[in-house]
Design brief:
Blueprint: H1 2-22, H2 26-51, H3 55-80
């Protein structure tokens, strides 16, 4: 049953990869990249379960957190053109 789930996740990743290549806007491509990251987390979890190695769940959680932070950073860059906010510059005295 879990092997079928792994195959279904790989098929879904292939479909999302096509969406990333054909996406009409940048935001469609970012969403596809985020979805590929989520599918990678699921594939890591299923693979860890199939092989009996629970340490893959730690890797999946870490990758999931990096995926969220990376997606937010990319979207912020596309919206504002910069990742940092310098704030109000103080005048020298």
């Amino acid at each position: 049953m879990f092997a079928a789930a792994a195959v279904a996740l790989l098929v879904a990743a292939a479909l999302v990869l096509v969406r990333a290549a054909l996406g009409p806007t940048v935001f469609d491509r970012v969403q596809a990249a985020n979805t590929i990251g989520t599918l990678a987390v699921l594939i890591l979890s299923v693979f860890g379960f199939l092989t009996g190695r629970p340490d893959f769940l730690d890797l999946a959680l870490t990758y999931g957190l990096l995926n969220v932070v990376g997606t937010i950073a990319v979207l912020k860059f596309f919206q504002y053109g910069d990742l940092g906010d310098p704030g109000e510059a103080e005048e020298p005295r």
